[in-house]
Amino acid sequence: MSTISATDYAILTVLLCAALFSLFLGLKGRAALIAVGKPMAGSTAATADETRGWRQRLNLPALFWRGLLTSRLKKRLAAGLAHGLMFGGALVAIFGHAVFALSFAGVPVYQGRFGFLVMELGRELAGILMFAGVLFFLVRRLMRLERLAVGRMRPGFVAVELLFLLVIVAGFVAEAFRLVDPAVTSRGEFLGLALADGLRHVDAAVHDGGAQAVWWLHGLLGVAFIGLIAHTPLSHMLIGPANSALAHRRSGINLPAIDFDAEPEDGKEFTFGAAKLADLSRKNLLDFSACLWCGRCHEVCPAAQTGKALSPKQVMVTCAGYLGEKRFDDVSLIDAVGMEAVFDCTTCGACVEECPVSNSPAETILEFRRHFVMDRSEMPDTLAMANRNLESRGHPFVGTAANPDDWREGLDVPFFEPGKTEYLLWIGCSVAYEERAQEVARAMLRILDTAGVSYGILEESRCTGDPAKMAGNEMQFVEIAQANIEDFKERQIQKVITMCAHCFNSFDRYYPELGADWQTIPHSVLIDQLIADGRLVVVRDEAEKITFHDPCYLARHNDIVDEPRKALSAVGQLIEMPRNRKESFCCGAGGGNYWGGKGGTARINDVRLQEAIDTGAGKIATSCSFCLLMLTSSESKHGPERRVFDIAELVVAALPGEGARLS
């Protein structure tokens, strides 16, 4: 006979309510920490209007796929499977426990097909799946994987994983004691039945006492587990999905605009960027609270993987430590992170794309960078020279011998005419001032002329301001952008072709915030359209093996991955690198690192070029002028043969009657 009385269940219910209250208090405390940050973009400074920012940011697809189905964990087969086992098992177990409560109202939940499939077999399998999943994570954590150990491991995970295992084990033992009773029948609880066979010869008094003791052990451990969720790393089960629900709808890095006309609040001195936690947004602080310290960002960061000072995980761990200690106004935070690490970031967005709980370490890093540059006037020397050159000469290329019109020498290039010209071909600073990139512009002219596209250029070369923005000089970026926007509006420009992924990203992502309203199209996308429409006819060479390097600012930041591949597949055989599309490895140029990026054990561009060479492809293609320049600078180490090309160059070489291939 069962020794578990209604009183036992009543007491356990009271304890469960206390555990839920503990959960509520823990979440309330974490919310209070996060509230110290600045209002999110889309809300005003007034507390009453903060909900507007949360509502505008609500991202239901990210909540469902990343937050609930943990889609990003599936990139790692073993970890994704283990997490899926735990999550699926927990859902069935929670549902089963909730249905069990109906039995107190006289509902026969253990009878019929439902009783067998759900209450018996389903819950049995759920327990086994949860046990296997949590055991996997516990063993892996005890093995101290590099990405888990870098910086330091998050304390508390091992303890709560052991607690979870004990809850499951105690549950199976309690089940075995229940199944010893001859009056209890079960067909689906196979593990419990096997364990019960070992208890059938136990004295009745011992059995009754053991059954009650184990039942209470299981119940108390389960209640403790629930009560500790918000006070331990288990909080990620709730905060992670919440953070995903507030993730940006647009991929990549999304830097909020700075209101340079805003008045400081409460008489405080106005600062640019962030030096302390209170300078960051509530979403940034939510990131620190949600962070698992799993190190996935560290594994994909090109700076971290080439031995540089930056580890995005270490940045998050440092900020999380300050948050946990409530050091909201401690300006030592920015120096604890370190200027070298802050400027090592290539803004590639790999950490943003990889994080399973939708954190954005890069956005926090760039807020620190803004403070270094605009508030403390500090940046690496080479980047400072490029910044000064951009301010005085309109481009960041220090010491270049090229003149802005050299690229079109001997060519009849039309200028944009308002009302007549369809597209503005935006030249940009890298194409104008770097000799290798100038060849891309010449190839693009040939393509546009061949396809009969109406296009024109501006009489003077310009920069979009991306080097300033990503280097942390937001004020300089705004000045450049506003001048470009005003000029574009006067010329009635409606469509712009870019040959640089950074130019595209600035025009398409940040210019509209300042009043821009034109359509921007990357040249690789336009080339694909022209081929698909039959306006550009190319000859495919099956023997031509081409591998493609995805520019971070097209693939990860803007989800442009298919169009360049279709264009390349029209001229040759495409061979993928191991890291491709949105998992591509950076060339190292972004974030102003074209003018810096020193230090570490290897150059990022050298690592990427070697990966491309290892595919066995004869040609390496890209669709960004900065990627082209970085990879070209590495290819000289592998001999005099040219093997790095822009998509436009390869397409021109495939035009009928072009003759010999590029070499």
Main sheet properties: 4 strands, parallel
User: Regions with pLDDT < 50 over 5+ consecutive residues?
Assistant: 42-48
Span from first to last CA? 87 Å
Nearest-angstrom radius of gyration?
30 Å
Rough outline = elongated
Strand order of the largest sheet: 2-1-3-4
Report the β-strand fraction as a percent range: under 5%
Tell me the CATH topology of the largest domain. Fumarate Reductase Cytochrome B subunit
Number of domains: 4
Number of helices: 29
| The level-1 CATH class of the largest domain | Mainly Alpha
Helix content: 40-55%
> What is the arithmetic mean of pLDDT?
92
Number of strands: 8
Derived structural class: mainly alpha
Based on the structure given, which CATH architecture of the largest domain is correct? Up-down Bundle
Protein name: 4Fe-4S dicluster domain-containing protein
Pfam families: CCG, Fer4_8
InterPro entries: 4Fe4S_Fe-S-bd, 4Fe4S_Fe_S_CS, Cys_rich_dom, HdrC_iron-sulfur_subunit, Helical_ferredxn, NarG-like_sf
Keywords: 4Fe-4S, Iron, Iron-sulfur, Membrane, Metal-binding, Oxidoreductase, Transmembrane, Transmembrane helix
